[in-house]
Amino acid sequence: AQKITQTQPGMFVQEKEAVTLDCTYDTSDPSYGLFWYKQPSSGEMIFLIYQGSYDQQNATEGRYSLNFQKARKSANLVISASQLGDSAMYFCAMREVPSGYSTLTFGKGTMLLVSP
Amino acid sequence: GAGVSQSPRYKVAKRGQDVALRCDPISGHVSLFWYQQALGQGPEFLTYFQNEAQLDKSGLPSDRFFAERPEGSVSTLKIQRTQQEDSAVYLCASSLAVSAGLRSGNTIYFGEGSWLTVV
Known about the structure:
By secondary structure, chain A is mainly β.
């Protein structure tokens, strides 16, 4: 079973509108972290936002916020006031604690296109 | 430098050729990771180093893949006798801490990747 599921291969949004990118995850560990990365065409994975499983509040970073619903095992990324420069691939990823040095497990990504 | 640096950025190799990809992590970062990203897919874990020790190489797809980090800083991923299915972006990443402590300070930072095309 996939640990990270991103069901939206592509999303379109108009400039200045908000958009939600979906992510569901699967883990039996009580401690884990959820990340969102942006990957523009240049290839670099740019860290956007992080949510810990024990965090009481949803994470926010500027125009990015994470809608964390623990019971549903979802961690959707909300981008407010979209900009043309937001066009890129977006990856949701999870890091589980018990492995100590555990790595990130990524979803397949969502391509976001922002139109003028 | 301030970020994770990878070289070469682009490499075209003939099938059967050996290639070496270099990663220079953020200074002081203990953990170093290599990922492989096929076209249209998310990154897949290859191997992990804690300082100079390779603690996990479970993601290496075959014995043609070899990675090292001899002095605990710069790392090299070597692919021997390249094949067409090796064509991918190879991403290097580093993080400050050893444990998977769930704090934002333990974020994993990625380089721009090395784009390998095997013809």
